[in-house]
């Protein structure tokens, strides 16, 4: 490849929306960062309980000129976020916890049938107790009609041969 074609494919990068943030080399805000990370760990990484610490960390960075000054409302914080909130109540099992097997734990989309089906319908050895005993009821009516016509043609041709 020539240099000319390489330059055509080059897309210049875009700076971040809030500008470039210098690293905290002297650890001026490290205490706030450690508190925030500890809070996340204690609350199962639910940031709702730790937003007030995130707010303190960003305030520290602005005070020490480690980031551009901005109102905290612009950064997504509310004025009343100054103390911990209770974590979200979400005890529903997730795919990561229960495991995920396509078509078995969740149905898969079959485009030709325009339906979502579970694989255990097609593989009876892995049958779900709630699954119907036969999958033919899922075939669209048009397919059923085609099958009936083929069967009718077969019986007619067999009847003509015997005469």
Automatic annotation (TrEMBL):
Pfam families noted in UniProt: CHCH (PF06747)
Main location: cytoplasm
Family that this chain belongs to: Belongs to the COX19 family.
GO cellular component: mitochondrial intermembrane space
Source species of the chain: Chromera velia CCMP2878
Protein name: Cytochrome c oxidase assembly protein COX19
Positions of region (Disordered): 71-107, 123-163
Presence of keyword Disulfide bond: yes
SUPFAM superfamilies reported in the protein's UniProt record: Cysteine alpha-hairpin motif (SSF47072)
Coiled coil: none
Start and end residues of each CHCH domain: 29-63
Biased composition (Basic and acidic residues): 78-97, 123-156
Organism lineage: Eukaryota, Sar, Alveolata, Colpodellida, Chromeraceae
Keyword list, A-Z: Cytoplasm, Disulfide bond
An example Gene Ontology biological process: mitochondrial respiratory chain complex IV assembly
Protein's cellular compartments: Cytoplasm
